[in-house]
């Protein structure tokens, strides 16, 4: 079934609530159940007033937005500890309402990305377009740095050795031992902070002495950045046509096609702005 | 106009993307906000006429009202730049920042905040803040560590640092004005012109009323003999220039004051 048309007004149509419900029902018996949120627990205290659950949902919404803004992990046990607290038994309905609000108002999906680590992520639910940061690109030096490294890894087709990365960064005037006016401690940024944020993986190269390290794409980079965006970045930076990297460009087009097929939202009838 | 509780305003993908990106950036200057708005129209609704920014934001705010959040517009105290941030109106305590600061770090911020509010200039010296490190709640913090925590606040745009002294970032004022006025009702200063919270500003030497620098600029614009609006005494301070976004863009040089607002995006 087609998810709710993105341009519709915000009254909750029965179909969309049902669709959301189904998603959550299936999750609750499986993953959410394993997260400790069984459907009907033993009879306990009376449920809190609906207004209180709504308030909790709003608090959780803000909590998730701020965590995402600061590029921090959204961890279920933290959600319970910091926001849900004693309402843990009504976690599912709180989460459901929060997800609905995030989808309707922000166009974001709150998705359980890893049951194993109990992590959630905020994923864009709008039709994927060119990297939004491009709109404000001259104010986002950090993204440029990250994209540079990701592109290098992508073009190589495998992990990029730390030495190779520094060779590229040297061209930008960045050295591992020098503090930079914008980036600060660049080495810390790329080997620790980008790694913590799951944009990069930094691993020891096996069987090599003295020890060397290499960079890979992190899970978050794979989720948020498409290969086509990398090709566009490369084209811009090197002032070449993306076809200058033929096999990579082909790969990027393949991925874009696969994404379009997997995301029929993009092709669902987008009604014009409807008045309420 | 919609009634607020059951129904919400009209929200399209243009507005959703705008909200997403505004939230991602935390706080944005007005020119960037306009650019952002144009970008969102370009992505989702190329042929539509771009709404006037004020109307666009009011429309979104009517939807956000029931969620107790709001896109707020403020003006930087030092050079009068309009800024926007998505703020949470519901939680009015410093625990807003609680998502990534430890208990002792939050307390350090509270201490710095108090010093800033009590000060005459709106600035608290690094030394004075660090001297309070022993009084912090939570885990014991050394001064060295406290210095780094203060830098974290600067990077996260809660504080601005100028020559070893700290004051509140425009974003912090936007988010916390209500909290500050409720928590420090006696110590809080307000501007005689706009009546909002005042941290930095100029004051009349005679009667003591205060004005924000951008408010001074506007009030005394092209006035050869500036006089205090309250006691009519001669206004002794230098009158700053009114912020002109057009002039700023033409010069293309970044102003020194801009640095704090452009600190590392996280």
TrEMBL record, chain A:
Family annotation (Pfam families): MAGE
Gene Ontology biological process terms, A to Z: negative regulation of transcription by RNA polymerase II
SMART domains in UniProt: MAGE (SM01373)
Cited InterPro entries: MAGE, MAGE_WH1, MAGE_WH2, MHD_dom
Gene Ontology cellular-component terms listed: nucleus
All residue ranges annotated as the MAGE domain in the record: 53-252
Taxonomic superkingdom: Eukaryota
Protein known as: MAGE domain-containing protein
Organism: Colobus angolensis palliatus (Peters' Angolan colobus)
TrEMBL record, chain B:
Location (main, coarse): nucleus
Alphabetical list of InterPro entries matching this protein: Nse1, Nse1_RING_C4HC3-type, PKC_DAG/PE, WH-like_DNA-bd_sf, Znf_RING, Znf_RING/FYVE/PHD
Subunit structure: Component of the Smc5-Smc6 complex.
Region Disordered, residue ranges: 243-266
Recorded catalytic activity of this chain's protein: S-ubiquitinyl-[E2 ubiquitin-conjugating enzyme]-L-cysteine + [acceptor protein]-L-lysine = [E2 ubiquitin-conjugating enzyme]-L-cysteine + N(6)-ubiquitinyl-[acceptor protein]-L-lysine
Family, per entry: Belongs to the NSE1 family.
Gene Ontology MF, one: ubiquitin protein ligase activity
Subcellular location: Chromosome, Telomere; Nucleus
Residue stretches of biased makeup (Basic residues): 256-266
Domain Phorbol-ester/DAG-type residues, every copy: 176-228
Catalytic EC class: transferase
GO-annotated cellular components: chromosome, telomeric region; nucleus; Smc5-Smc6 complex
PANTHER family xref list: NON-SMC ELEMENT 1-RELATED (PTHR20973), NON-STRUCTURAL MAINTENANCE OF CHROMOSOMES ELEMENT 1 HOMOLOG (PTHR20973:SF0)
Keyword Transferase among record annotations: yes
Pfam families membership: SMC_Nse1 (PF07574), zf-RING-like (PF08746)
Domain RING-type, residue spans: 191-232
Name of the molecule in the record: Non-structural maintenance of chromosomes element 1 homolog
Function summary: RING-type zinc finger-containing E3 ubiquitin ligase that assembles with melanoma antigen protein (MAGE) to catalyze the direct transfer of ubiquitin from E2 ubiquitin-conjugating enzyme to a specific substrate. Involved in maintenance of genome integrity, DNA damage response and DNA repair.
Keywords annotated in UniProt: Chromosome, DNA damage, DNA recombination, DNA repair, Metal-binding, Nucleus, Telomere, Transferase, Ubl conjugation, Ubl conjugation pathway, Zinc, Zinc-finger
UniProt EC number: 2.3.2.27
Composition skew (Basic and acidic residues), residue ranges: 243-252
Annotated coiled-coil segments of the chain: none
Any Gene Ontology biological process: double-strand break repair via homologous recombination
């Amino acid at each position: 079934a087609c998810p709710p048309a993105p341009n519709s007004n915000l009254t909750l149509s029965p179909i969309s609530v049902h669709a959301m419900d189904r998603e959550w029902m299936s999750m609750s018996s499986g993953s959410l159940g394993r997260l400790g949120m069984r459907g009907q627990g033993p009879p306990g205290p009376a449920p809190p007033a609906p207004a209180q659950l709504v308030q909790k949902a709003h608090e959780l919404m803000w909590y998730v937005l701020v965590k995402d803004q600061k590029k921090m992990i959204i961890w279920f046990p933290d959600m319970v500890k910091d926001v849900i607290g004693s309402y843990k038994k009504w976690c599912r309905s709180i989460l459901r309402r929060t997800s609905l609000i995030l989808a309707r108002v922000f166009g974001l999906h709150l998705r359980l990305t890893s049951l194993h680590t109990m992590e959630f992520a905020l994923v864009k639910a709008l039709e994927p377009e060119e990297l939004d940061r491009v709109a404000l690109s001259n104010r986002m030096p950090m993204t440029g740095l990250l994209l540079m490294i990701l592109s290098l890894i992508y073009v190589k087709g495998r992990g990029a050795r730390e030495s190779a990365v520094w060779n590229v960064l040297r061209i930008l005037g960045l050295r591992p031992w020098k503090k930079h006016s914008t980036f600060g401690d660049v080495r810390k940024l790329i080997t620790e902070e980008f790694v913590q944020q799951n944009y990069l993986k930094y691993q020891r190269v096996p069987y090599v002495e003295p020890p060397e390290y290499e960079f890979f794409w992190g899970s978050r980079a794979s989720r948020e950045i498409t290969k086509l965006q990398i090709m566009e970045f490369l084209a811009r930076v090197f002032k070449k046509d993306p076809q200058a990297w033929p096999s990579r460009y082909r790969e990027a087009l393949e991925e874009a096609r696969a994404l379009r097929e997997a995301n029929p939202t993009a092709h669902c009838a987008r009604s014009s702005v409807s008045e309420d | 106009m919609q009634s607020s509780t059951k129904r919400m305003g009209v929200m399209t993908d243009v507005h959703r993307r705008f909200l997403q990106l505004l939230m991602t950036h935390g706080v944005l200057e007005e020119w960037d906000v306009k650019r952002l708005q144009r970008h969102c129209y370009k992505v989702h609704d190329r042929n539509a006429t771009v709404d006037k920014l004020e109307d666009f934001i009011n429309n979104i705010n009517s939807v956000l009202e029931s969620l107790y959040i709001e896109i707020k517009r403020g003006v930087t105290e030092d050079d009068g730049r309009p800024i926007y941030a998505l703020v949470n109106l519901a939680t009015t305590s410093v625990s807003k920042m609680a998502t990534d600061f430890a208990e002792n770090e939050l307390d350090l911020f509270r201490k710095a905040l108090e010093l800033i509010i009590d000060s005459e200039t709106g600035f608290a010296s690094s030394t004075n803040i660090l001297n309070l490190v022993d009084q912090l709640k939570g885990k014991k913090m050394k001064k060295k560590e406290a210095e780094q925590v203060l830098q974290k606040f600067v990077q996260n745009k809660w504080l601005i640092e100028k020559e070893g002294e700290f004051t509140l970032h425009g974003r912090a004022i936007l988010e916390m004005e209500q909290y500050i006025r409720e928590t420090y009702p006696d110590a809080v200063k307000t501007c005689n012109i706009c009546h909002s919270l005042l941290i930095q500003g100029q004051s009349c030497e005679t009667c003591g009323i205060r004005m924000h620098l951008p408010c001074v600029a506007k009030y005394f614009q092209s006035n050869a003999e500036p006089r205090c609006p309250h006691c009519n005494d001669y206004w002794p301070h230098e009158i700053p220039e009114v912020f002109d976004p057009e002039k700023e863009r033409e010069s293309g040089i970044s102003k020194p004051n801009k640095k704090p607002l452009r600190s590392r995006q996280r």
